[in-house]
Amino acid sequence: MTALEKGLQWERALDLFDEMKYKNMPVTVVSYGSAISACEKGYQWRQCLEYLDEMTERKIAKNVIIFGAAMSCMEKACRADIAFQLMERMNLEGVRPNVHIFNSAISACARCKLWRKGFELFKEMDKVGVKRDVVTYNAVLDAVCSQVDLAEQIFREGVGRGFYAKVSRLGTQWLELDLHFLSLGGGETALRWWFEKCLVPYLGDSKELASVKSIDIVTGYGKTRARGARKGDDSMRKRVRAMLSFMNICE
Which of 78, 106, 243, 72 is nearest to 183 (CA)? Predict the structure, then answer.
């Protein structure tokens, strides 16, 4: 099952899981974890919830890995409302959320355009003692990128923590902004920050400007990269081009 799930053959993985139950073969928390992960690959959020209920009926205790897989499923399916319910369910069942749980919930907020709730969850992590990572910052920047001042504040905090240390590279003859590991919202914020706080002050010196031969913006691992893509063929490259056009900057 795990091999099928990881190979993106989610339908075969779920069929195999159903066959195991039909033949009264033993199913464990690991079996359900693989089945729920397969649901994520196929955006089968209703089936995911059914499996959680089955675990309760079979008295199979859920752990943070099970809830993490379910949260990822809700994130991919754009069901932020159910993701919030799952966090409440975790609390009722005595399962402590980890960074992955919060990251999935914040990412779900980004997909559903719930920036206030995403920022609220971001702040809550400090209160409950869950340490943020670079995925957390990428997720919340995706959620709040429309709130320019707030997004820049969060991005600067991420820079201060060393998460975006390699975003800007300023050489004597070349200048580069590397966005390949950022979310779409993170990329937008980084681009604004780079122009306003790094590039413009640096190029204010005419001698420095005269020696610059190239200014590059790396959007990802190739032209088709679309990390965290949204509906409407969204991508990092598309967003960067739109922002450059808005600023009257030619490629």
Answer: 106
**Beta strand extents in the chain (DSSP E only):** 168-170, 174-178, 214-218
Q: For the stretch 171-188, what's the b/e string if a residue is b when 16 or more beta carbons lie within 10 angstroms of its beta carbon?
A: eeeebbbbbebbbbbbbb
∠ Cα 201 202 207 (to 5°): 120
In this predicted structure, the answer to whether residue 222 has a pLDDT above a threshold of 50 is no
* Residue position matching structure tokens 């709040």: 144
- With beta carbons less than 8 A apart as the criterion, state whether 243 and 217 touch: no
225: pLDDT confidence band, cut at 50, 70 and 90?
A: very low
Query: Phi, psi at residue 12, to the nearest 5°?
Result: -65, -35
Q: Is 119 helix (H, G, I), strand (E, B) or coil?
A: helix
**Residues 8-24 as b or e (16 or more Cβ within 10 Å = b):** ebbeebbebbeeeeeee
Task: Say whether 73 sits in a helix, a strand or coil.
Answer: helix
Predicted confidence band of residue 176 (pLDDT cuts 50, 70, 90):
confident
Residue 100's φ and ψ, nearest 5 degrees, are -65, -40
Using alpha carbons only, give the angle 117, 64, 78 rounded to the nearest 5 degrees. Answer: 40
This prediction has a pTM of 0.84
